[in-house]
Each structure stands twice: as C-alpha cells, then as structure tokens.
Amino acid sequence: MKKFLFTGVFLACSMNAQAAQEPTICASILTQSHPFYIALNEGLKAGAAEYNADLKVSIANQDLSKQINDIEDCITKNVDAIVVSPVDSKGIRGPLKKAERANIPVFTVDISAEKSNIISHIATDNYGGGVEAGKLAAKHLNGEGTVVMLSYPGISSVEDRLRGFRDAVADTKIEIVAVQPGKTREEAMTSTINMIQANPNTDLVFAFGDDMMIGASLAVTKQNSHAVVIGFDGMPEGIKAVDDNENIIGVVKQDADRMGRTAIKVAVNYLNDKPVEAQYPIVPVLYTGK
C-alpha cells in the first residue's frame, strides 16, 4: 500500500513538473497569406520547440470576429498564456479583457493592442523603420518631391511606420499628397494606380509591406510612371523584388523569425516567474539591393 501511494505521489509530481515545463501557449496570428506572418509562425514554432512549450496556433485570416472566437476558445480551454498579433488594435480589447479576468497573461507580437493589459509587446521598431525609409526617400529625392503612401487602417504597426516616414521628411520639401489603403497586393496595385492618376507627378510610393511594395511596383510600371517604391518587411520575396525591379529602391527588413522565437521565450520566462520587459523592440535594417 505504501509503495502504491509513493508511486502515485511520484507520478503526480512528475505530471506537475511536466506541466510546469511545458506550458500551453495559444497564438492567434493575423494571417498566413503574407510571407512575414508565415515566417513569424515558423519562429513561434521554433521557439516552442526550443523552450518546451505546447503551442496551439490559430489563423485569423484578417477577420476580427474569427480572432475573437479563437481567443475566447483559448480562454475556455484555460491555456497558460496567449500570444496575439491583433487584426484590429482597438477591436481586440474585449477578448483580451476576458483573458485578464481569467488570469491568463497576454503577449502581443508585431501589432500592439490598445487599452489592454499586456505583459510584453514584441515587435519591430516600426517607427524607427519608418524613419529609415523616410531618410532613404529624402536622399533619393534630394529633399524635394511628391510622395504617396499605402496604409492599413486600424493596425498600429503600420501607423507607426507611416508616422516615422512622415517625421523623417518633415523638414524637407517632400510633400505627401495621398494615402490609400492597400491590405493585399491587388488592392495596393489598384490604390497606387488611383493615386498616381490623381497625382501624375508622383515621385515615390511608400508601401508598408512586401506585397504592397510589389503591388505598387506593378502599378508604377502599368502607369509608365517615373515613381520609385520603398517597402517594408524584407521577406525573401521582398528582397528578390528589390534586386529584380529598378523601380524598387529599398525595403526595411524585419526579422519575423526572431520575433516569433522571442515571443515564446518571453512568455515561458514570465510563466516561470522570471523578470520580463514590457517592450522587446527588434531593430530592422535597410536593404537597398545586392
């Protein structure tokens, strides 16, 4: 009987130790139709393998309702932590409040969540990357010209990139004459065509992502415009686009894999009562061709 009790206690302790070593982390990712988020997802998986976490990933497909349902499902399953790249920085507040009430820590990656109790935010220094893009634009245009920009309303990381660009050219004679949404390559191409047609003297297009950069480049070619394009993300297809297209002069290169790995590391450290920072900025670099 004593041997049975001892064995039972040993097994219970082993199971508890395993649970502590392998926390369940639920990740809700914005999309998998974009190379950046594919790389981010791979980074999350690699981080989970490295730091012994049981990772459950759901893809929101840019649908806020789906993301809300996915996160609420994670809360119902009482996971140990949630990692999220919000579809909408404001719209995600409700389910994150529910996670807080359930004592489930939340970590945001790439895109922040407004007015929510977030333990840590792991992301590219988007503002700083926007500044680098603006500096490249100012150098290429010799401090004078006409710029249009592509945006993704409601996404804080994109807004930070555009804000950094604006601030970098604020003391020049560069004028930003139009901003239109471009959530996909096709929409970016259409929006860029519309902006160039309305502003035939457009000298430069700033696109917030690789797909948008490539869409803008196609638009410039279709319109026989002299404009050049600067992008953001720098995934393999984006790097190749800079190398292969004369009208793309550079891209701000993110490290999505490192971002995903860092998010898992920070979450696991927090769950193991190790100190973590509120912000983990991943510094981007400017790529202008091989």
UniProtKB/TrEMBL annotation:
Residues 1-19 form the signal peptide. One of its GO terms (cellular component) is cell envelope. Transmembrane segments: none annotated. GO terms for biological process: transmembrane transport. It is found in: Cell envelope. The keyword Signal applies. Its main location: other. GO terms for molecular function: carbohydrate binding. Keywords: Signal. The keyword Cytoplasm does not apply. It comes from the Bacteria. Residues 30-274 form the Periplasmic binding protein domain. This is Autoinducer 2-binding periplasmic protein LuxP.
